[in-house]
Amino acid sequence: MSRPVKIAPSILSADFARLGDEVRAITEAGADYVHVDVMDGHFVPNLTIGPLVVKALRAYSDLPFDVHLMIQPVDPFVEAFAEAGADIISFHPEAGPHPHRTVQLIKSLGKKAGLVLNPATPVEAVEYLLGDIDLILVMSVNPGFGGQGFISSQLDKIARLRRMIDDSGREIELEVDGGINTRTAPQAIAAGADVLVAGTATFAGGPTAYGANIRTLRGD
Ligand SMILES: O=C(CO)[C@H](O)[C@H](O)COP(=O)(O)O
Ligand SMILES: [Fe+2]
């Protein structure tokens, strides 16, 4: 039985001068999540957006906001993103000394907690948190920029995590982020992904193309 696949457009590839309209457009085009990449110029070599922008965008979509924090430290900013309207808050274990504490903080605010694995981070980093987290995000590029090429070695990691999640008996979503396109989406799905983040591939061609782009990536 094949699982339904969700598409989470990364608004990093949207037109930032029209961000609200872009979020509305992907919502109307059939996206499942709105993926928000938060970068601090320290944990990753790029700067993007903060909680004020997340809060402003909330008015444009009822979809779950899937907030990918690429910031260090994480804990001092979790409450601000929760209050701004994040539904899923994911962070990198390398960004702080106590990932378990960060997961508990996110959950104490009534939000879903995700752990992000960089391409170099082994699956073992998530093992002790399988009883607590709601989502695992596998980076298939080095975090920091949209438009990079998919790192194929991550397919094996996705498959291993699929087995770990299934063995755990818990409802944990397996999300893949970076370099997803019409060639790599089927590979990630076959390896066991539940959610595909796609920036470049969703926003290519402008608003009239978003619906077809999303359906193609999902394999509809
Ligand atoms: O987290 C990210 C980068 O750090 C982005 O979500 C990711 O790069 C998506 O962009 P694209 O689909 O263009 O690769
Ligand atoms: Fe991301």
What does this molecule look like?
Catalyzes the reversible epimerization of D-ribulose 5-phosphate to D-xylulose 5-phosphate. InterPro entries: Aldolase_TIM, Ribul_P_3_epim, Ribul_P_3_epim-like, RibuloseP-bd_barrel. The chain has helices spanning 19-28, 51-57, 75-84, 99-108, 124-127, 154-168, 184-191, 200-203, 210-218; strands at 6-9, 34-39, 65-70, 88-91, 112-117, 135-139, 173-177, 195-198. With 220 residues, it is α/β, with parallel strands linked by helices. It has one domain: Aldolase class I (TIM Barrel), CATH 3.20.20. The structure holds ribulose-5-phosphate (5RP) and fe (ii) ion. Residues 10, 35, 37, 68, 177, 197 line the site of fe (ii) ion (FE2).
Give a brief rundown of this model:
The chain has helices at 19-28, 51-57, 75-84, 99-108, 124-127, 154-168, 184-191, 200-203, 210-218, and strands at residues 6-9, 34-39, 65-70, 88-91, 112-117, 135-139, 173-177, 195-198. The chain is α/β, with parallel strands linked by helices and 220 residues long. Strand 7 (173-177), helix 7 (184-191) and strand 8 form a beta-alpha-beta unit.
Q: Kindly report the spatial arrangement of strands forming the biggest sheet.
A: 1-8-7-6-5-4-3-2
Q: Which term fits the overall shape?
A: globular
What's the overall average pLDDT, rounded? 98
Structural class of the secondary structure composition? alpha/beta
The number of domains:
1
Report the CATH architecture: Alpha-Beta Barrel
Distance between the termini: 15 Å
Q: Beta-strand percentage?
A: 15-25%
Largest sheet: 8 strands, parallel
CATH class categorisation? Alpha Beta
Rg, nearest Å = 16 Å
DSSP E strands, number? 8
For this structure, what is the CATH homologous superfamily?
Aldolase class I
CATH topology: TIM Barrel
Bound molecules: ribulose-5-phosphate, fe (ii) ion
Q: What's the SSE pattern?
A: EHEHEHEHEHEHEHEHH
Protein name: Ribulose-phosphate 3-epimerase
Binding site for substrate: 10, 68, 144-147, 177-179, 199-200
Active site: 37 (proton acceptor), 177 (proton donor)
Family: Belongs to the ribulose-phosphate 3-epimerase family.
